[in-house]
Amino acid sequence: MVLSVGLVVICCVLVRGRVSKTPKRLETPRKEVLEKSSMKEKETGQVKLTIVYDNNLYDERLRTGWGFGCLVEVDGKNILFDTGADSPTLLANMETLGIDPKEIDILVLSHIHGDHVGGVWGVLEANSKVTVFLPQSFPASFKEKIKSYGADFVDIFGPTEISSAVFSTGELGDGIKEQSLVVKTKRGLVIITGCAHPGVVNIVKKAKELFGEKIYLVLGGFHLGGASDSKILGIIKDLKALGVQKSAPCHCSGDRARELFEKEFGDDYLEVGVGKEIRL
Ligand SMILES: [Zn+2]
Ligand SMILES: [Zn+2]
User: Fold this and answer.
1) What is the CA(68)–ligand 2 centre distance, in A?
2) What distance in angstroms lies between residue 115's CA and the mean position of ligand 2's atoms?
3) Are strands 188-193 and 215-221 parallel, antiparallel or unpaired?
4) How far apart are CA 106 and CA 17, in angstroms?
5) What's the angle, vertex CA 192, arms to CA 177 and CA 154, rounded to 5?
6) Taking Cα atoms as reference points, which of 79, 52, 57 lies closest to residue 68?
7) Which of 70, 175, 197, 278 is the most exposed place for a label (fewest CB within 10 A)?
8) Which ranges in the chain belong to alpha helices (H)?
9) What is the largest CA-CA distance in the chain?
């Protein structure tokens, strides 16, 4: 066990040595980000989010599958956050929605689970000019495979600027390591979670600590399937106390959590599923 962990660490170090692009690390995140934010305010135009993969249906022309994927269009960049469980479903949905995989600039993977990374290879086959931002703890074999398609990858450690107005929280969690996406919009921060294994409240706390800005929307998998009502209600209370204005739980949030979020957030609850578009 110790030996295999050691090997993984060594392999990761070796692979990291070949990364060709160095991400902009936010060593003193809050200050740096706040300074950038005034700059970004002028630059950031409309932000469009499209859920391209989910187990909940929104647009009846599309296919559902267990997993999550969301396209973020901001400042002329197309960023795909997670890819669902399989390429055929992902690519078919994208085609129906008029999204060309060749136009994707950046791929961000929240965590290693198959329902989030399963569609990666179909995207890379269609477009190798993509930079993949992934938690540094991903296995070396996964990173090698990205390289074998001719694409680049960037290891995410701490909070990182991925593109103009788009940031990673950094790799979070003690168990399953996961990064979430933070998008700065005119209405406030939008936080997009894959499965929220580190806890959706912890993720939102981290984003608030990094940016100190109003949180407009939290969207994605909240990992509350099978959770008790009291646990879900406690999480809703914590999110509201952190200033979360709107919520859009999907993927692994669970039907009961979606019901309770809808009840508690009222008009600020967004019903989302595959095909839902949100413009900000
Ligand atoms: Zn997961
Ligand atoms: Zn998941």
Assistant:
1) 6
2) 5
3) parallel
4) 21
5) 50
6) 52
7) 175
8) 2-16, 29-43, 87-96, 114-117, 120-126, 140-148, 200-211, 229-241, 255-265
9) 53
Give all domains of the chain, ordered by start, each with its CATH number.
26-272 (3.60.15.10)
Which residues keep their CB under 5 angstroms from ion ligand 2? 115, 195, 252
Task: Decide if pLDDT at 269 tops 70.
Answer: yes
- Using the mean position of ligand 1's atoms as its centre, give its distance from the Cα of residue 257 in Å: 17
Decide if pLDDT at 173 tops 70.
Answer: yes
Which of 10-19, 146-155, 171-180, 192-201 has the lowest average pLDDT?
10-19
Name the residues around ion ligand 1, CB cutoff 5 A: 113, 195
Q: How far apart are CA 215 and CA 255, in angstroms?
A: 24
Which residues does residue 161 pair with via DSSP β-bridges, in sequence order?
24, 167
| Contact assessment for residue 140 and residue 132, using Cβ atoms and an 8 Å cutoff | no
**Token code pair at residue 39:** 């700059």
Instruction: Give me the count of residues in the chain.
Output: 280
- Two tokens at 12? 């990761």
Span between the terminal Cα atoms of the chain, in Å: 48
What the block records as the tokens of 109 is: 């993977």
pTM for the full model?
A: 0.86
Separation of 162 CA from ligand 2 center, angstroms? 22
In angstroms and rounded to an integer, the radius of gyration of the C-alpha atoms of the chain is 18
Tell me, rounded to whole angstroms, the distance of Cα 53 from its chain centroid: 12
Q: What distance in angstroms lies between residue 56's CA and the mean position of ligand 2's atoms?
A: 13
Distance 41 CA to ligand 2 centre (A): 32
- The answer on pLDDT for 7 being more than 70 is no
* Contact (CB, 8 A) for 15 and 8: no
Instruction: Pick the ligand that lies closest to the CA of residue 178.
Output: 1
